[in-house]
Amino acid sequence: MKQHDPKVEAEHLESRELLPIGEVSLLTGVNAVTLRAWQRRFGLVIPARTPKGHRLYTPENIQQIHEINAWLAKGVAISKVKPLLMSSALATEVDSTALQEGDLWHEQITGLNGALFELDQQKLHQIFDEALGLYPFQLVKQKLLQAWMAQLPALLEPRLDAELLLAWLESELASRIGGRASFAGQASLAQIGVVCLPSVLGPKTAEQQSGQSNMTHSNIMNSSITNRLYSLVLRLELAELRVSVINLGVLDITSLGLINNRLKVDALLLLPEANHPPSKIFELQSVLEQMQETCYLIGPFAPTLTALSAFMAPDLAEWVNQVSAAKEQHRKQQRKQKNAAEAQQGGQADER
C-alpha cells in the first residue's frame, strides 16, 4: 500500500496553480458557504488541502464549478448534478426528467406565498436557508426572489392586510440582510446609500380627467409595492457583495439635494417609482448633475427615465470590484508614502 507523504503532496500542490476559497468565490459567483455545502452534502468540487487543512482549488475544480452553475441555470437541482458531471456522454443524453427541477423554483415560490400569507416565520426562513445555502446568489435572485416578487404586487394590492404582510416581510428579510451584512468578520468592500424616489402626480391632463389614464391609484400602489420589494432584493444582493448599506428610505427630489456633499458613501442608488412627469425628470436631472456623490438610477422603473440614461447603474458586482480595487490601490499608496516618510525621518535621526 502506497504511503502518504505530506512533504511530496505539499511540493505537488505548490507546483500547481491553486486558489483559496475566497478567490474562487469571486471568480465563480458561488460563495464559500455554498462551496462547502456542495462538498459536504453532495461530494461536489473536492479541493486539495494544505498541511493545515485550508482548501485550495485547482483549475479543474473551477471548471467543475462553472459546469455546475450551467446545469443549475438549466433548472437541474444541485442534488441531481453529480451524475451529469461523470461523463460528457451522460450530459448530452440527459432526458427531460432530469430537467423537471424547473418545478423546484415554482414549488418554492408557492411555499413562500404560503409562508407570507400565514406569517410563518420558520417556513419563510427555511426556504431561504435552503436556496441561499445550496445555490449561487445570482441564480436564487433570478429564479426565486425576482420571480416571486414579480407576482406579489398583484397578490397584495386587493388584500386588506397588504400593508401588514408587506411590513412583516420587510422585517423578516431585514433580519437576514443584517445577518449577511456582518461579512463573517471581513471588512466591507464599499458603502452605498439607498434612496426610494416616490411617484409624483403632476397637474391632471385631459386624459386623466376623463378617466382614461393608465396611471390609476391601483397602478401607483403597485409601483410602490414593487419598489419596496425590489429594495429588499437589492439589499440582499449588496450584503452578498460585502457592501454596507445606509437605507435612507423615501426622499423626494428636493430632499435628495440636501444630501449633496454630506454623506460619505461610494455611491447613492436611487430607486424611482413610476410616473415622474417631464418637469420632475428635469428637476431630478438638475439635482443629479450638482451632486458630489456618485448617483445611479436602479430598479424596475429606472429604464423608463430615458432622459437620465447617463445615470443608469452599472453591473453591481463589477462596480464593487472596481471600487474595492481602487481602495486597495489607495491604501498601498498610503502605506508606501508612510514608509518613505518614516525612512526619511530615520535617516535624519542617524545624521544627528
TrEMBL record:
Spell out the Basic residues composition-biased ranges. Answer: 329-338
The record's section on InterPro entries has: DNA-bd_dom_put_sf, MerR-type_HTH_dom, MerR_fam
Q: Where is the signal peptide?
A: none
- Which segments carry the region annotation Disordered? 327-352
Task: Name one matching Pfam family.
Answer: MerR_1
PANTHER family reported in the protein's UniProt record: HTH-TYPE TRANSCRIPTIONAL REGULATOR MLRA-RELATED, REDOX-CYCLING DRUG-SENSING TRANSCRIPTIONAL ACTIVATOR SOXR
Q: What is this protein called?
A: MerR family transcriptional regulator
Native species of this protein? Shewanella decolorationis S12
